[in-house]
Amino acid sequence: MRLQILQLALAAVCSTAATAKIPFYIIHNAETPSFGRPGLTPVGKQRADCCIPNVFSDWNIGLILTCTVDRDGKEGLNCPAANRTAFPLAQSLGINIATCATGDGADDDCPSNTIKKFNKSSNQSVLIVWDSTDLEDLLENVDTDASLDNDSLGLHADLILSVNPAKLKSVGQSSMNCTGLDGTA
User: Domain of life of the organism in this record (predicted)?
Assistant: First the structure.
C-alpha cells in the first residue's frame, strides 16, 4: 500500500514537472557596427564576453536558442551577431546553442517547439538570443502579448524580456545593468 502511494506521488510530481510552464528570456544581439557592417562593436564584444555571462550565470539557463540567416541571405542579417553574443555564455555554462531559421520558408513554430521539447525533459530556463531586426517576428512566433509598438521594447541591447507562459505569455522587461555599458534609464 505504501509503495502504491509513493508511486502515485512520484507520478504526480513527474507529470507536473513535465508540464510546468517555465519562464524563458529573450535578448537580442549585442551592439553592432553602423551601416550593416558585420560583427560586434567593442562595446558589443564587452557585453557578450563579460556582461551577459555575469548576468545570466545564476539564472538556471539550460538551453540557449539563436537564429540563422535564411537561405537567400535576406533575413536574419544580425543572426551571426546574435550567435557571437550567445557564444561566451554558452561556453561558460557548458551548453550547446540550438538554432532556428528566420525569414521566408522558415518554420515559424521552431522557437516555440524547441522550448516545449526542452521543457519536457528539463526544469531549466531557456535564453533566446535573437536578431535585433527580427524580434517582432520572434515575439509573434512564441505567442507573447508583447508588441514592438512600444518604443522601449526590443530597441536596447541591455533589455531582457522575461516571458512567463503560465500567465498567458506575459512579458516583463528589465535591464542587464552592465556597469560602464548601460546608461541611466
Answer: Eukaryota
Taking alpha carbons only, the member of 163, 168, 157 closest to residue 33 is 157
For the entire predicted model, the pTM comes to 0.82
62-99 residues labelled b (16+ CB within 10 A) or e (exposed): bbbbbbbbbeeeebbbbbbbbbbbbbbbbeebeeebbb
* pLDDT tens sequence for the chain (185 residues): 333 333 333 333 343 334 447 889 999 999 999 887 889 999 999 999 999 999 999 999 999 999 998 766 666 778 999 999 999 999 999 999 999 988 777 788 999 999 999 999 999 999 999 988 888 888 888 877 665 554 445 467 888 988 887 775 667 888 898 888 886 54
